[in-house]
Amino acid sequence: MSLEADVRDLWQRKQDGLTAADTTSDHLAVLEAFLAALEAGEVRAAEQRGGEWEANEWVKQGILLNFGLRETAAHEYGDVTYHDVLPLRETADLNERGTRNTPDGTVIRRGAYVGGNAILMSPAFVNIGAHVGDGTLVDSCDTVGSCAQIGSNVKLGANTLIGGVLEPVENAPVIVEDGVSLGAGCRVTSGFVVGENSIVGENTLLTPRIPIYDLVEEEVIYGHLPPERRAFTRFVESSVSDHEMFDGGAYKPAVVATDVQAETLDATEREDALRE
Questions:
Q1: How much is the pTM?
Q2: Which of 73, 98, 126 is the last residue of a domain?
Q3: pLDDT class for 82, splitting at 50, 70, 90?
Q4: Is pLDDT at 239 greater than 70 in this prediction?
Q5: Measured distance CA(162)–CA(191) in Å, rounded
Q6: Claim to verify: residue 95 and residue 182 sit in the same structural domain
Q7: Of 73, 101, 129, at which residue does a domain stop?
Q8: Pair (16, 91) in one structural domain
């Protein structure tokens, strides 16, 4: 059987009542092979098909099985004993691909893929099922949530949150495509897709519930930022409007997207040079 078939079979057994106490060495061998495939980049929680990102349900099922069919156990990391269903990811292979990860706070969970020539600064956290592409910077205090798909040559500014979408399994996770630059303090949640080569200003919240005012196409969109946009937060008038509890109108956050300007590209290129 293929790995996908093995995972689907194990998922059905779990639905039929299989528990961690019933798990056999054969079951665990499937889970270990699945984690190894994730870490090698051989399977991914989501892929682009026909220009649209779609979740691979069986991959997300495999991740959930690693929680549901394992007992919590004590693990050692340095001088710290912690309790989880999985140990942390081994990182020896990162050096072989030219990737750097700094100590004392950089946590890469099992089942996470990190590409070559990437940089992970401490403290940072990359969760199970996440895919971090080649040449990407995960800066200090960043979180890359479960199943999030981060492209190549992406810059996640300090204190950036990339949300995880593990359940429901049919929902695509957060996608940050190749060449994106997210400013410090950005948050991307709930399956939002950031189009390639976009530059997002600091402290911007990107989520399907907040409108994107795309000034390039002159339309209001939700759930994705088109490629090659410069985006930043602004506030627009809310339907609440005036209220006796406060003076003036009420406003809600929105995101404005324009063309990427040459001077913005110059600034990001100068930052690239500083990181080499």
A1: 0.91
A2: 73
A3: confident
A4: yes
A5: 10
A6: yes
A7: 73
A8: no
Amino acid at 125: F
**For the chain, what is the mean pLDDT?**
92
Cβ 146 vs Cβ 171: under 8 Å: no
**Does the pLDDT of residue 79 top 90, yes or no?**
no
Number of residues assigned to the chain: 276
Spell out the SS3 assignment of 40-68: CCCCCCEEEECCEEEECHHHHHHHHHHHH
Amino acid at 251: Y
Which tens digit of pLDDT belongs to each residue from 89-107? Answer: 989 899 999 999 887 788 9
HSE of 238, CA atoms in CB hemisphere, 13 A: 12
- How, if at all, do strands 46-49 and 52-55 pair? antiparallel
Give φ, ψ of 64 to 5 degrees. -65, -35
